[in-house]
């Protein structure tokens, strides 16, 4: 079964409508062929609850946005002008560069944390200024969130007030999409990049239909995704330290 050199299969969630994929752009500009398959989709909820909390920023030290979906939910809850007016003076944080850029573009608010790639690193950044925070952080999140942020901040008596704003759903067409991407499971991309544990779990049963699946070099985004791969006894070729196009390029 042929291994297609310099080809990268990106297995990631759906991107925001009307936006270019920076991972794909950077890889292609460095002479890689890129195949992308959507592993997950998202269903938003509790936007009214989030709106009420956003209208009362005096109850919070700031907002924590851990993914672009959290930014989208916040954008749905309150318009950019009002968010900037109410929240720009707060201590706001994001995980990673993509979320940081979307928060600036869609919400108009400045956030720290773009250099952090996971919740534990973000917690350490927040803790550095813990004496300045006497109120909880507003934390819109998805149904698959971990308790890492809450537990790490809790060690310093910092609180988060969570609002469940989206559910993560598997792409119902993923088997067909992967079949098309691999010519009915007969062609093997040299690299496969898993962006999240949930995306990995939704796609791995179908990827294993490729006879020589173990020839692919597996790249994990972050330590949590790496752990999910290791639990399935898969050999990880490399780990991107943070969810950025530059780190993915270094890893392939």
Automatic annotation (TrEMBL):
<dbReference type="InterPro" id="IPR039793">
    <property type="entry name" value="UROS/Hem4"/>
</dbReference>
<dbReference type="GO" id="GO:0006785">
    <property type="term" value="P:heme B biosynthetic process"/>
</dbReference>
<dbReference type="GO" id="GO:0006780">
    <property type="term" value="P:uroporphyrinogen III biosynthetic process"/>
</dbReference>
<protein>
    <recommendedName>
        <fullName>Uroporphyrinogen-III synthase</fullName>
        <ecNumber>4.2.1.75</ecNumber>
    </recommendedName>
</protein>
<dbReference type="GO" id="GO:0006782">
    <property type="term" value="P:protoporphyrinogen IX biosynthetic process"/>
</dbReference>
<dbReference type="InterPro" id="IPR003754">
    <property type="entry name" value="4pyrrol_synth_uPrphyn_synth"/>
</dbReference>
<dbReference type="Pfam" id="PF02602">
    <property type="entry name" value="HEM4"/>
</dbReference>
<dbReference type="GO" id="GO:0004852">
    <property type="term" value="F:uroporphyrinogen-III synthase activity"/>
</dbReference>
<comment type="pathway">
    <text>Porphyrin-containing compound metabolism; protoporphyrin-IX biosynthesis; coproporphyrinogen-III from 5-aminolevulinate: step 3/4.</text>
</comment>
<dbReference type="GO" id="GO:0005829">
    <property type="term" value="C:cytosol"/>
</dbReference>
<dbReference type="InterPro" id="IPR036108">
    <property type="entry name" value="4pyrrol_syn_uPrphyn_synt_sf"/>
</dbReference>
<comment type="function">
    <text>Catalyzes cyclization of the linear tetrapyrrole, hydroxymethylbilane, to the macrocyclic uroporphyrinogen III, the branch point for the various sub-pathways leading to the wide diversity of porphyrins. Porphyrins act as cofactors for a multitude of enzymes that perform a variety of processes within the cell such as methionine synthesis (vitamin B12) or oxygen transport (heme).</text>
</comment>
<keyword id="KW-0456">Lyase</keyword>
<feature type="domain" description="Tetrapyrrole biosynthesis uroporphyrinogen III synthase">
    <location>
        <begin position="22"/>
        <end position="248"/>
    </location>
</feature>
<keyword id="KW-0627">Porphyrin biosynthesis</keyword>
<comment type="similarity">
    <text>Belongs to the uroporphyrinogen-III synthase family.</text>
</comment>
<keyword id="KW-0350">Heme biosynthesis</keyword>
